[in-house]
Amino acid sequence: MELLKQMCKIQAPAGDEGPMKDFVLNYIKENQSGWKVQPQIIEGEEFQDCIILVFGKPRTAIFAHLDSIGFTVKYNKELVKIGGPRIKHNYVLVGKDSKGEIECEMNVSEGSKKAYYKYDREIDRGTQLVFKSDFRTSDEFVQSCYIDNRLGVYNALKVAETLENGIICFSCYEETGGGAVGYLGKYIYENYQVRQALISDITWVTDGVKHGKGVAISMRDSGIPRRKYLNKILDLAKASKIDFQLEVEDAGGSDGNQLQKSSYPFDWCFVGAPEDNVHTPDEKVHKHDIDCMIKMYQYLMKSL
Q: Which residues fall within 8 angstroms of residue 107, CB to CB, at 6 or more apart?
């Protein structure tokens, strides 16, 4: 879990994914010599802070977003949400402004439910703050801030070790509604004729999706994948003998929603481990579900 632990410490809220891009790119360059296939690495200013890896003759793409939730310092010590983080008294936030490193606490007003920072000085306007990392493991669980979506990135990097044919897209801006997936989808469709995708992201523990029961395959959330493609994935999942559970929700979304809204005929399906304490410093995932997620992706990328 050391790689996941390192990534959970990186400050990269939506709009400031550069530190995560640099870490992932450096990890790829240092480790790809030990992978089964060395991918073509596609990145640069025309892709902003995204990375595309192309392995062999790809048929399917994995999308994993690099960004996290967080906060932007407004005026009068107020904090503006980046994405949908939970707010609570005494959450510890970290960041950096022109005066140096910052570690402060959150204060939540009783009436307006607005969040403010408590600190011994004024923090520069526009500074981005994130939850302080406190990475914990037990025999069964991993717990930290930003498991969503550092675990999705971790999964993609583990799958990359044995991937022979496929594409991995590390995307940006997912937590604030998307913005990068459209041009990533356009590029891989036009250059590699790839039009089916798996979304490597983290979902919720709910009444119907539990810890320790396997990776969740989402039949729908706020977006609805094409049933023909979904059925194909479900048939493969059953044949794999890997533990999985079915999710049906009416809210939430992912990079899959942005693919569906693009002008390209992408099929997509969300496949990810469920977590508790969503969008807090204490996100919690069962290790068995992580193992099932990696194995399912390895199986699906060979079979789709």
A: 89, 90, 115, 116, 117, 118
